[in-house]
Amino acid sequence: MTNKLTLSILAALLTTSAGVSAKQPEFAADHCKAGEINAQHYRNFPAAEAEAKARHAKLFERKRAMAKPGDDASVAIGDTPSALALSATPSYVIPVVFHVYGTQFNGKTVTDAVIIDALNKTNEDFQGRTADFADIDAEFQGVKQALNIEFRLASIDPQGNPTSGIVYHPASSGAGNYSSSDVKRDHWDNYKYMNVYIQNDLYADGVTNNSGVAWYPDTTMSDEGLARVTYNGAYLGSNTDENFRSVLTHEFGHFLDLIHTFEGGCKRGMERRCGTTGDENCDTPQQNSWQMNPGDGGIVNCMGQTINWQNFMAYSDQYANFTQDQVARMVNGLDSQARVTLWSAQNQAATGVAN
Ligand SMILES: [Zn+2]
Predict the structure, then answer these.
(1) What separation in Å is there between the alpha carbon of 355 and the centre of ligand 1?
(2) How far is the CA of 57 from the centre of ligand 1 (A)?
(3) What Gene3D superfamilies does the record point to (predicted)?
(4) CB within 5 A of ion ligand 1: which residues?
(5) What domains does the chain contain, in order, with CATH numbers?
(6) How many CA atoms lie within 13 A of 68 on its CB side?
(7) How far is the CA of 58 from the centre of ligand 1 (A)?
(8) What is the tens place of the pLDDT at every residue in 123-164?
(9) CA nearest neighbour of 234 among 208, 255, 253
(10) How far away, in angstroms, is 159 Cα from ligand 1 center?
(11) pLDDT tens, position by position, 59-105
């Protein structure tokens, strides 16, 4: 499932700063390039980075507003205990459209049934309705959190006609590239639909085992019809194994503003600034590298902390959970200008996903 070239490049990129020697993991390594492509996006569009900073300042304010009496609300967000994570999250229903390009995905096909199954399972991941969610490491039983969200295939298209929420196109590639012409041409209004593009060669570079990529909430992209998740049809639902199909959940996490838990590696100095460094969540211990699964380098980080190796935003061979801080960040992302219209009651009715 892995490609040695891309794997070695990724290993070189990600292990240099972490100071960990490259090691071939037993699971597929090249899950996604979200860290790189979002960093590139912010270099290209400073306004997008400013928007992200404003969004995260809002999250800090929300957490501070919820601080209990006695808590020091003036502390940096990095010191905010996970107990302050937002609670009582409302229900979110997100209308989704899948754009499927071609019929061959490393020998697999993508049908309505495959997509429906994949989406159902991703909903179970988010809602904590899997056996793994119940069975995660003891250290994270008190930290894990579900999000009451459901991604539903749209049943009304932008013209007001009935739809399955799945649109088939001739084979194409490159929907993982920022300015993909397929993405722009075929998108449905990004403020009304979450657009998911299914291809096999995500970057039009001849590599067919990149699993997926997604951008964080950003109105520049939504205005241009470029907001999206791009995903490899070979790794949708039953087209792959039970664990690896959760990479779709991982990409949806990015779409809702989550960063990789291994971002930035592990550094002692980052600990007190955990709300603004790494994945910007304090209840996800830093990871030395992405290569941290039991048997793949240990599960204790550079400071001796047990890591949440089963986190959906890690590269895990047993995906299981999000944390309280991650859910708070997703709720904040759902309230952002680029995402808030998706789940409004008015839009749920207009796209045919209302209860
Ligand atoms: Zn990712």
Answers:
(1) 31
(2) 23
(3) Collagenase (Catalytic Domain)
(4) 32, 34
(5) 4-68+86-351 (3.40.390.10)
(6) 8
(7) 24
(8) 999 999 999 999 988 889 999 999 999 999 999 999 999 999
(9) 208
(10) 33
(11) 989 888 876 555 544 443 443 444 344 444 457 999 999 999 999 99
